[in-house]
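step=encode ok
step=design start
structure_in=
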């Protein structure tokens, strides 16, 4: 394992690791969705809910790593679980590997969800491939938690893991399970309330949740999905609009990979 440390803008140290991670297990848990357990000592020790790793292809024609959110962290066994959807050539390559093979990673990257705000009850909301980060968050976040998961159809991947540490409510677009509709439909249909929202998923869902949080007068933290290049904040390829001027770029932008991927909803424009 090679450790690389970079000095950040703030006083806290920005630190991540390059690692050759051993694959402990990989299996398909829904059509096109894969669960991958990796052994990686330093990354697992330091990872927090909401962070991600960047995974390199062995095929060197695919130069850039693929960012994948962390689903579960096992610090005792020094392993990480990644759950990802096979969407292109890079993730198709990853899906073909099995136990005993290795993958090159950088991580842990980005900022995770805040765990110390003291909320009594929180909505943990995941949509599609934004569901996996809610697993570790449901384990580590104190207080009462209601997980609201949105799926296209009835392949409710990670349902068992999510229900172990929180109340689980499901929405499906086709109505095959839970509420027919989206995550907000499920919240309203079940008359649910909370003090804050922690969410990850597609842009339209996040925009709707930001507006809902403003209407309800509750705090909201959003994990943004974006294509990335370097993953460490150097290339400025993954930016979102911010309300305030960024000290690094001197414009109203935030780097999703380094300043995020988790932002307070009132920090950013969607």
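sequence_out=
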């Amino acid at each position: 394992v090679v450790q690389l440390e970079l000095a950040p803008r703030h006083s806290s140290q920005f630190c991540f690791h390059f690692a050759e991670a051993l694959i402990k297990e990989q299996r398909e848990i829904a059509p096109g969705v894969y669960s991958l357990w990796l052994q990686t000592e330093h990354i697992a020790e330091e990872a927090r809910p909401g962070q991600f790793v960047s995974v390199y292809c062995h095929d060197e024609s695919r130069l850039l790593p693929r960012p994948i959110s962390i689903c579960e962290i096992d610090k005792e066994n020094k392993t990480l679980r990644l759950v990802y959807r096979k969407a292109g050539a890079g993730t198709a390559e990853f899906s073909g590997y099995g136990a005993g093979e290795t993958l090159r990673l950088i991580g842990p990257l980005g900022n995770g969800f805040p765990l110390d705000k003291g909320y009594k009850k929180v909505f943990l909301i995941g949509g599609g491939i934004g569901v996996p980060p809610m697993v570790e968050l449901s384990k580590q976040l104190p207080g009462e938690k209601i997980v609201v998961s949105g799926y296209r159809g009835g392949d409710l991947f990670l349902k068992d893991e999510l229900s172990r540490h929180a109340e689980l409510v499901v929405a499906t677009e086709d109505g095959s399970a839970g509420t027919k509709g989206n995550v907000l439909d499920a919240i309203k249909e079940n008359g649910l309330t909370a003090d804050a929202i922690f969410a990850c998923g597609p842009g339209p869902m996040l925009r709707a949740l930001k507006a809902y949080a403003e209407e309800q007068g509750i705090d909201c933290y959003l994990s943004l999905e974006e294509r990335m290049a370097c993953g460490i904040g150097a290339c400025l390829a993954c930016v979102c609009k911010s309300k305030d001027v960024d000290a690094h770029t001197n414009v109203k932008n935030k780097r999703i990979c380094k300043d995020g991927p988790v932002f307070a909803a009132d920090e950013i424009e969607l």
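step=design ok
step=annotate ok -> The radius of gyration is 18 Å.
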